[in-house]
Structures are given as structure tokens and as C-alpha cells.
Amino acid sequence: MGLTTCFGSGCKESGGVVSDLEQHREGDRKGNPPLFLSLGIGFVIAAILVIVTSGTAAAGLPFVIAAAGLLGKGLSDMRGQQRAVGPPVSTERELLSAIKANGGSITPAEAAMETSLTVREADGMLSELAGGGHLAVESRDGALFYSLPGRRNPELDGR
Fold it and tell me: Which residues lie closer than 8 Å to 34 by C-beta, 6 or more apart?
């Protein structure tokens, strides 16, 4: 029950959760803006030198076209990176805030409804936090509830 991702001519199967390595690889597709900008400036200088030494503007035209393309690509990639970089959203903090807002305990399905996580991601993160001793696990009516340690759930006190 994995996730199939297809890029170009190849497809790959994953467990549905994007690893840090996969996220890093997808982020690398933007290119290297400083490299493109540097090459663009180099081609501008080369165009000027060719035009000055040859005495005709036509001789420098290929360098001007290459410079324009490289500068445009570098500026475009730089703007794309600026848009892509925002304040990092911690899914763990988002999940813990949802637990707190939900009275101190939550199920994976409730966590998925109240956060940007899927049920599978929420279940995995909750299990990991519980395994590390950061959350307590309670079973009620056939469902697992994850709660912050030291906080008693009012529903449990009434039983």
C-alpha cells in the first residue's frame, strides 16, 4: 500500500512518507543560481571583449544571447528558492499543539483531521513519541489515545 511516484521515464515505490533524503533530492532540481549568474556575467564580459576587439556587434551576439539566458535562469532560480524557503513548519510541534488543543489526548485519526499529517503519518509520529516516553498510550473503546504525560483525561476519571 505504498505510494508510486513517477518522474520522467522512471517510477519508484515508497512507503508514502517522504524521507529527508528524498526531500533534499527534489529540492536540488532548482539548479545553482550563483553559478548561472556568474556564468552570465562572464559571458557579458566575453561579449564586450569580442565586440571591442572585432569592431562589429554581430561577432558578440552569441555571447549576449548566452549571457541573457544564463542571467535569466539564475535570477529565476533565485526567486524560486526565495519563495520555497519559508518558516519551517515542525510537524511534531503541530501534532503536539493538536494534542494540547484536544484536551491532552488524541487518536491518530483526530490528529490527521487537525494537522497537515495523514493518518499513517500521525500514527507513526504518535507511536514514535510514545516509544520515546514523550506520550502516554491509553486504550479506550478499542481505540488508542495518545496523551501528554502527567495530564489526566477527564473522560478517564469518570470511569
Answer: 74
- Per-residue pLDDT tens, the chain, 159 aa: give them: 445 555 555 555 555 455 454 455 444 556 788 899 999 999 999 999 999 999 888 999 999 999 999 999 988 888 877 665 555 568 888 888 889 898 889 999 999 999 888 999 999 999 999 998 889 999 888 888 999 887 655 555 544
CA gap 119, 136 in Å, rounded? 18
> Where do the domains of the chain lie?
1-30, 31-86, 91-157
Identify the architecture of domain 91-157 in CATH. Answer: Orthogonal Bundle (1.10)
Q: For residue 92, what is its C-alpha cell? A: 511534531
CA-to-CA dists, residue 77 to 30, 54, 56, 68, 74, angstroms: 6, 34, 33, 14, 5
